[in-house]
């Protein structure tokens, strides 16, 4: 459930910056780097995602290569949202 | 057959190896002390043939673009770079939300005659962006002043509207800010991040004593403690890595006298955080009258080189960002681009953010209420790129960074006809040494 929420947030953030992912692509894992062509697009995507999930992604995770897999990137963000939740407990 | 790229530069490393740089490819490398002489010999040859003895070196140098196929015409490649740069698809606006400032820096050239941007001018600007954004792939805004944060409401209003327009039209939006940092509180910073202001340039002139003297509040009073307090609050409370803050210091003799304390202080407070970088320049005459009080504090010839030397030799590394000016196109003044404009607080459309009072050359149009810039094409064209290649410039290793358009203002307003070299050229050895100290270059052999 939580994974699905993160996945939807990633896709919504991409959509907000004008990157449309075809439904066929979404069925499998895919490389997000193919859709984010420059640093402005990358940062715009991260801003949208941070706002969507209300998390802050630290510098050490903001590596372009961390986008090589949609699933792994989702897992990484999931880890961050859990950390944030734990802070409030 | 291979030949060395004409855009190569090499210099000694502090560890006695050799640092290599190519300004066209923005590539960097390091070779060991043992291989230094042979590398210099290869890179100084007219042509090089691959053989069993040099294969490893030739391949490594070719991969990084220091050696190229003998048949490649680098002038033609340069023409392509010019074409790409000139045909910029982004609209860039340097906006002065107010021309008032809460500081009175000793060397500031602004005269603070104009005030805050009115609602009418703001609406005209929004209308201009709405009507024209379809021509561009992105909107980039630089918040400048005066002190932009004095007119925070203008930034909020315009940012909100620009972001909405870009969202609807699926255009990229990015923003940066030049601020003195006094009003960059944690609360304001968080709001600015939401408005996508992600890159900041702040000038802090040394430590408390020098900053408080060189950059006092308008009514008098120190500024150092508050600016540092703001930066530390941001550093310690904001986790996201999406922003960068460049701390610029305009060095004077007085700051130089405290150079070791300067490095210690900034290393201790910001050295562990890659979001903070540093940029150094000598304080100099940027124009205006106030600066006359400071002449005796200016560094003499070579003063800035001595400062760089101190940075190189100090064990504590500060992430100096002077290397950003070694990238292709980085030294081209924004005024030389046809899609970059300065919008003053009264709606004047200008090319250069210096000489803000010059209406003869610098002011090329004025925003109208229906969102037109009313640009005088003849005036605008004077700022445009020069394609004629100067004999001296065409031999310069740094040409891809400036493309002979480092400062059109000097040519147009001050009638200086010879080409102006980027300031970074004087510091290039130190810039490479310092860059390699914080971001080690690939050791290619």
How would you explain this protein's 3D organization?
Chain A is built from 4 helices and no strands. Chain A has helices spanning 2-16, 23-26, 39-53, 70-88. The longest helix of chain A has 19 residues, at 70-88. In chain A, 26% of the residues are buried. Chain B has 15 helices and 14 strands.
Concise summary:
The complex is a heterodimer of chains A (about 90) and B (about 450). Chain A is mostly helical and about 90 residues long.
Distance from N terminus to C terminus of chain A (CA atoms, Å) equals 21 Å
Low-confidence runs of chain B: none
The main β sheet of chain B shows up as:
9 strands, mixed
Shape of chain A: globular
How many beta strands in the DSSP annotation of chain A? 0
Structural class assignment of chain B: alpha/beta
Salient structural properties:
heterodimer, A: 89 residues, mainly alpha, Non-ribosomal Peptide Synthetase Peptidyl Carrier Protein, Chain A, 0% strand, globular, B: 445 residues, alpha/beta, 15 helices
What secondary-structure arrangement, pairings included, does this model have?
The complex is a heterodimer of chains A (89) and B (445).
Chain A: H1 2-16, H2 23-26, H3 39-53, H4 70-88
Helix pairs in contact in A: 1-3, 1-4
Chain B: E1 2-4, E2 8-12, E3 18-22, E4 27-31, H1 36-43, H2 55-63, E5 67-69, H3 74-86, E6 90-95, H4 119-132, E7 138-143, H5 152-169, E8 172-179, H6 186-194, E9 197-203, H7 208-214, H8 224-237, E10 244-251, H9 253-257, H10 259-270, E11 276-282, H11 303-313, E12 340-343, E13 348-350, E14 363-366, H12 377-382, H13 399-402, H14 408-412, H15 424-438
Parallel strand pairs in B: 6-7, 6-12, 7-8, 8-9, 9-10, 10-11
Antiparallel strand pairs in B: 1-5, 2-3, 3-4, 12-13, 13-14
Helix pairs in contact in B: 4-5, 11-15
């Amino acid at each position: 459930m939580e994974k699905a929420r993160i996945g939807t947030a990633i896709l919504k953030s991409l959509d907000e910056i004008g990157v449309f992912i075809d439904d066929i692509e979404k069925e499998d894992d895919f490389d997000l780097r193919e859709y984010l062509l420059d640093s402005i697009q990358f940062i715009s995507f991260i801003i949208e995602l941070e706002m969507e999930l209300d998390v802050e992604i630290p510098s050490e995770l903001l590596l372009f290569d961390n986008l090589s897999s949609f699933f792994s990137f989702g897992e990484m963000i999931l880890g961050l949202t859990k950390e944030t939740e734990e802070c409030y407990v | 057959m291979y030949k060395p790229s004409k855009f190569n530069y090499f210099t000694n490393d502090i560890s006695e190896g050799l640092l290599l740089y190519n300004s066209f490819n923005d590539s960097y490398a390091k070779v060991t002390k043992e291989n230094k002489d042979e590398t210099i010999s290869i890179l100084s040859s007219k042509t090089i043939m691959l053989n069993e003895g040099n294969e490893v070196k030739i391949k490594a140098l070719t991969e990084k673009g220091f050696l190229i196929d003998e048949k490649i015409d680098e002038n033609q490649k340069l023409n392509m770079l010019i074409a790409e740069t000139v045909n910029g698809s982004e609209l860039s606006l340097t906006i002065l939300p107010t021309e008032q400032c809460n500081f009175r820096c000793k060397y500031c050239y602004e005269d603070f005659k104009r005030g805050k941007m009115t609602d009418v001018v703001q609406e005209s600007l929004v209308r201009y962006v709405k009507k024209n954004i379809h021509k561009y792939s992105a909107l980039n805004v630089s918040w400048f002043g005066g002190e932009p944060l004095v007119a925070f409401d203008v930034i909020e209003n315009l940012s909100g509207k620009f972001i909405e327009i870009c969202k609807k039209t699926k255009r990229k939006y990015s923003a940066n800010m030049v601020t003195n940092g006094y009003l960059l509180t944690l609360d304001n910073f968080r709001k600015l991040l939401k408005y996508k202001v992600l890159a900041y340039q702040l000038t802090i002139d040394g430590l408390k004593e020098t900053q408080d003297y060189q950059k006092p509040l308008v009514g008098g009073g120190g500024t150092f403690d508050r600016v540092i307090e703001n930066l530390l609050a941001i550093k310690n409370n904001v986790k996201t890595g999406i922003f960068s803050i460049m701390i610029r210091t305009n060095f004077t003799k007085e700051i130089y006298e405290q150079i070791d304390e300067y490095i210690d202080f900034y290393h201790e407070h910001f050295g562990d955080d890659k979001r903070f970088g540093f940029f150094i320049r000598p304080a100099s005459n940027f124009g205006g009258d106030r600066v006359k009080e400071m002449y005796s504090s200016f560094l003499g010839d070579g003063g800035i080189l001595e400062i760089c030397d101190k940075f190189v030799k100090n064990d504590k590394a500060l992430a100096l960002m002077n290397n950003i000016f070694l990238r292709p196109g980085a030294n081209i003044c924004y005024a030389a681009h046809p899609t970059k404009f300065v919008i003053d607080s009264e709606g004047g459309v200008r090319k250069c953010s210096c000489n803000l009072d010059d209406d003869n050359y610098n002011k090329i149009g004025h925003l109208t209420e229906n969102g037109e810039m009313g640009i005088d094409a003849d005036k605008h064209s004077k700022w445009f790129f020069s394609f004629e290649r100067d004999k001296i410039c065409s031999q310069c290793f740094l040409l891809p960074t400036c493309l002979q358009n480092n400062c059109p203002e000097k040519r147009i307003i001050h009638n200086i006809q010879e080409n102006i070299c980027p300031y970074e050229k004087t510091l290039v050895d130190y810039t490479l040494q310092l860059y390699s100290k914080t971001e080690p270059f690939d050791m290619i052999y």
